Task: structure prediction
Amino acid sequence: MKYITFSFDDGYLNSCKRACEILHPYKATFYLTSGWIRPNQCEIIDELNKNIDHGSIEDWTNIYKEGHDIGAHTHTHILMTDPTIHTECSKSLEFIKQIQAEPPYSFATTFFGNVSHAIINMFDSIRVGYKQNNFYNSLEKIDLKLMRSFCPLAEKRTMDSVRKIIQDMPDGHWIILTLHGLDGEGFSPVSLIELKNIKEYALSCGFLIKTVKEVTTEIIAKRKI
Result:
């Protein structure tokens, strides 16, 4: 058995809706920057996120009710080394709890930064980057507070190299793709066709498409037995 998760950072509402259509009937994980979401929207300093619709809490609640997964991605998208990062994560978690009443609660680090012990204790799972070309998580040995992920186009990899990484993953493992916007929206966007091709290729390789919440819930349940 092997899993793949399509996760999207920053909370681009239009890209989210298109991704949901392409991935249907499968579900995705969306990591939200809570301070960019209406009605309590703060000033957006990040150039790539200005003038983009990050949606309202009602929008994301409806997406969650459709079976998609909503996670935290700080409050204003600051660096993990910022002295206010603990407060940022706490605000982001409290926002997510308005959408999802029960755990597990997931967090995605900004800029693939490291996390402090306090933040580790705050969330049930934490998605980080990869190290030393190790893109996969062992379903048996995974550290849920250190889930590896892979951002394919941020590294300007070709679709062939992305398919190779997917193809080479052994059974009993899980790959989490870190994506952002679609068709020119936001940071390192992928095209609708690229997203569809990755989905179809993963399915052809025998992958099960799951959200972060679905997989972590399974892992936590097995560890309680």
